[in-house]
Amino acid sequence: MPLLLRRFQFVDHGSLVDRELELVQPQKRWIDDLLASCRDSMTVTHMPREARLSRDEIQQFLAESPLGRYSGDDALGRVPAYHFWMMLRHGAAGPTSPPPLRIAGGLSVRIGHSPAVELYYGHLGYHVFPAARGRQYALRACGLVMPLLKAHGLRTIWVTCDPQNMASRRTIERLGGQYVETVEVPMGDPLYLRGETHKQRYRIEV
């Protein structure tokens, strides 16, 4: 059953930092940095849907999820979630040869249980822009939010990926994910409509 939203409370997670990587709450001051990552030539080539993200769409997201916090919607079967942007901190704490981006990607942490979360979307959802790949940012970002999942009482979580996404599969396995099955995404689901027809399901004990 979905989590009762009237009882849900977001928690103060403090700073989420792993060397040069910091998970930050989405805010207007970083819109230009996010758009720069979306317009990067490698993003345009390899992530065309993200490359088309507009300023208006980002502002709408910020209005619906202030500071990246989405309260959920029982009527739509959507659980509450935290959203983060993967910020790269350059300088003394940063890499010697940083990628030409300030925002390396994004991470969503879904709190609660529903068929959609456990079968298709997962409790963790992430993406890393092509120019920032190869530095285990997704793995490190997921590791940073494990205490947040525990704080909400989640001990077993589900993470999914497309069967052909080998990089995501490796990330999940390094997090301790155990493969359970591959399921078909229902026709009409937003994932299906954007071409994601199957999901591999992994169980992780937090």
Automatic annotation (TrEMBL):
From the Swiss-Prot or TrEMBL record, what is one GO molecular function term? acyltransferase activity, transferring groups other than amino-acyl groups
Secretion signal span: none
SUPFAM superfamilies from the UniProt entry: Acyl-CoA N-acyltransferases (Nat)
Chain ranges of the N-acetyltransferase domain: 21-177
**Pfam families according to UniProt:** Acetyltransf_3 (PF13302)
Matches recorded under PANTHER family: ACETYLTRANSFERASE
Give the protein's recorded name.
GNAT family N-acetyltransferase
Taxonomic lineage? Bacteria, Pseudomonadati, Planctomycetota, Phycisphaerae, Tepidisphaerales
